[in-house]
Design goal:
The chain is mainly β. Helices cover about 5% and strands about 50% of the residues. A hairpin with a 2-residue loop joins β24 and β25.
Length: about 425
């Protein structure tokens, strides 16, 4: 697993003949529609691909995945940057990655929000800007090297790493050596290795910094144990959790999930930043805290049920659900029944069922609406409900993307020939 960038511009890789492209653009401009009402289609389905809004613009594709072209629309559905790129990503820090050429031999650069090429296509891989820097790759995804550029396109940290991540808390995680044998360390924004490459080898040997600490593993994927280091590289919480992958999470709101024991028989609990076990390992799984509560799973010889705890570790909603998901906007999706045939509903923070289990799929509430599915994951349709459970947008979409900036991209039709538009939340 790459810690960052094989730059995935595959969301919207496209192209078509120039005349066909121009005619499609003209049709788009004439059919775009906006409705300033929550729960309505505000940009009619007309695109062959569409991504979430970022910085007020969204990537759309005109044409198929192999030959179509990508451009950007604004929130009124107007084509702000004409489709002309073979790959395109969302805007971040005022710039967006675009690719000119195919996936194998094309080059990536950056455009500004007026569509002007701010950094010429020259990289074999490129990531979004964060804190004024972006990861770039020179060479293919197997043997190429990663470094960092500034917003003028200057390489400020030479391409020298075998893997590289975005900066977090002023440091970035990098790998020296291949995926199997390489070691992970941390650099600062001047490219100095401030914590030597020593963690690993293998998947999830080290995580990015959060709340001033980073989870690291001493040993291999199967037998290694996890602990935490500070930004000077000092081991502040001894490597003791695990063994195995996913034995320690990043810190969030002063707590981190840890597992004592292996993946089959181990139990999960929570530690504070001093390494004190504030919620004893007793759970068979947990989602992490959201809105002050965390979903937890407890198994016995016959059953496996989910409930919720508070930050003191008190069970506030008894384990009773076959599936349970994080709280958002005061409600959480739960499942009664198995993953294939069970039904989803919503509970409040007192555990009261406020929307009865009736949906075949359900996501978290955002800005008062939640996406639900009627039917199986292959032929079912997606719609949106409000917090009273009323269907405010009837199930009619074959797929939806992530919600961003008040809009969500939706597709009507099959994956290969359906059309994308946008719905307001």
């Amino acid at each position: 697993m790459k810690i960052l960038i094989s730059i995935v511009l595959s969301v919207l890789l496209l192209g078509c003949g120039q005349k066909a492209e121009q005619s499609k653009i003209a049709a788009i401009q004439s059919t775009s529609q906006t409705v300033e009402t929550t729960g309505k289609i505000v940009i009619n389905p007309q695109f062959d691909g569409a991504g979430p809004f970022s910085d007020g613009l969204a990537v759309v594709r005109v044409g198929d995945r192999e030959t179509g072209k990508s451009g950007y629309i604004d929130k009124q559905g107007k084509m702000a940057i004409n489709p002309q790129f073979d790959g395109a990503g969302p805007f971040s820090d005022g710039l967006a990655v675009v690719r000119v050429g195919d996936r194998e031999t094309g080059k990536s650069g950056y455009i500004d929000k007026q569509g002007k090429m701010a950094i010429n296509p020259q990289f074999d891989g490129a990531g979004p800007f964060s804190d004024g820097l972006a990861v770039v790759r020179v060479g293919d995804d197997k043997t190429g090297k990663y470094g960092y550029i500034d917003k003028q396109g200057k390489i400020v940290i030479p391409t020298q790493f075998d893997e590289a991540g975005s900066f977090s808390d002023g440091l970035a995680l990098v790998r020296i050596g291949n995926e199997k044998a390489g070691k992970y360390g941390y650099i600062d924004k001047q490219g100095k290795m401030v914590i030597n490459a020593q963690f690993g080898p293998g998947l999830l040997s080290a995580r990015s910094f959060a709340d001033g600490l980073a989870a690291i593993r001493i040993g291999d994927e199967d037998t290694g144990k996890y602990g935490y280091i500070d930004k000077q590289g000092k081991m502040v919480i001894n490597a003791q959790f695990g063994p195995g992958l996913f034995s320690a999470s990043s810190f969030s709101d002063g707590l981190a999930v840890v597992r004592v024991g292996d993946a089959k028989t181990g139990k999960y609990g929570y530690i504070d930043r001093q390494g004190k076990m504030v919620i004893n390992p007793q759970f068979d799984d947990t989602s992490g805290f959201a809105d002050g509560l965390a979903a937890i799973r407890i198994e016995d010889a016959k059953t496996s049920k989910w409930g919720y705890i508070d930050k003191q570790g008190k069970v506030v909603i008894n384990p009773q659900f076959d599936g349970a998901y994080p709280f958002a906007d005061g409600l959480a999706a739960i499942r009664i029944g198995d993953e294939d045939t069970g039904k989803y509903g919503y509970i409040d923070k007192q555990g009261k069922m406020v929307i009865n289990p009736q949906f075949d799929g359900a996501k978290a509430f955002t800005d008062g609406l939640a996406e639900v599915r009627i039917g199986d994951d292959k032929t079912g349709k997606y719609g949106f409900i409000d917090k009273q459970g009323k269907m405010v947008i009837n199930p009619q979409f074959d797929y939806t993307s992530e919600y961003a900036e008040g809009l969500v991209a939706v597709r009507i039709g099959a994956n290969d020939n359906g059309k994308w538009g946008y719905v307001s939340r």
